[in-house]
Amino acid sequence: MGVILEVQGLTKRYGGLEANKDLTFSVAERQVYGIAGPNGAGKTTLFDMISGHTPPTSGTIRFRGEEIQQLQPEEVCHRGIARTFQTPVVFGTQSVLANALVGSAFGRQGGSVKGGSVAPTLRFRPEEIDEALAALEFVGLLDKQAQLAETLSVFDKKRLMIASALATRPKLLMLDEPVGGLNRAEREQLVELVRKVNAAGVTVLIIEHVMKALLALADRLLIIHHGEKLAEGNPSDVIRDERVVAVYLGEQARDLVAALKGG
Ligand SMILES: Nc1ncnc2c1ncn2[C@@H]1O[C@H](COP(=O)(O)OP(=O)(O)OP(=O)(O)O)[C@@H](O)[C@H]1O
């Protein structure tokens, strides 16, 4: 399988703080690539650089062979990368369908969608409406399409963020802690949803603290500590790595073997 994303020597400094330091890794097409590490390790900063929300201090990010580290978020999106955020970000006073439409229209037309409402300059085409409805159906929110997004539960808001991201028709979907804050049944459903996204041919990059969920999904695992790569590779090796156990996993390490994908 070819490489879809290649990160080389990526560093991000905020003043004296190195939020990411010389990170290098690559993601193969159709892989589920998991990222974990202690709070403040630099995981979201890494996502912010890949999605164009903040430029790196140095290093390169190649997506399907093209350097993208200087692109704006909408340009990154048009190349086929979509993301969700740790805390659900939805247009609360808009309907569920309007939120998904922002994704399908943004993915095709570009432009910026700002503030608390869907930008009036966006005029939706029939195919964009179809795309938005398909994305809602995919995540299981079709029957709530007319509801205001702010009335949704956290679980549904998370699913809506995924639907909006999918409506841009990404080749790579980046999920920032999709499972955090959910109950057990919801966590299982979310894991199933990510599997379904991946089975549809989308490569997935996922940050997650809930290791059982992460291990149920990940084909490869990267552990970041103080902005640096602590370990990377086959999840079954990474969770047995002494440094990973010492710095991050602790007591839970032994129980996690049973949670491995395919295990
Ligand atoms: N815009 C910013 N300005 C200054 N410092 C920042 C900025 N964004 C992040 N940082 C710092 O960079 C470091 C890495 O933060 P980041 O949010 O990437 O970590 P994380 O691994 O995603 O953490 P968590 O697991 O808590 O979400 C932290 O020390 C954070 O305070």
TrEMBL record:
GO terms for molecular function: ATP binding; ATP hydrolysis activity; L-isoleucine transmembrane transporter activity; L-phenylalanine transmembrane transporter activity; L-valine transmembrane transporter activity. The keyword Nucleotide-binding applies. InterPro entries: AAA+_ATPase (IPR003593), ABC_AA/LPS_Transport (IPR051120), ABC_transporter-like_ATP-bd (IPR003439), BCA_ABC_TP_C (IPR032823), P-loop_NTPase (IPR027417). One of its GO terms (biological process) is D-alanine transmembrane transport. Keywords: ATP-binding, Nucleotide-binding, Transport. Residues 5-251 form the ABC transporter domain. GO terms for cellular component: plasma membrane. This is ABC transporter ATP-binding protein. The lineage of its organism: Bacteria, Bacillati, Bacillota, Clostridia, Eubacteriales.
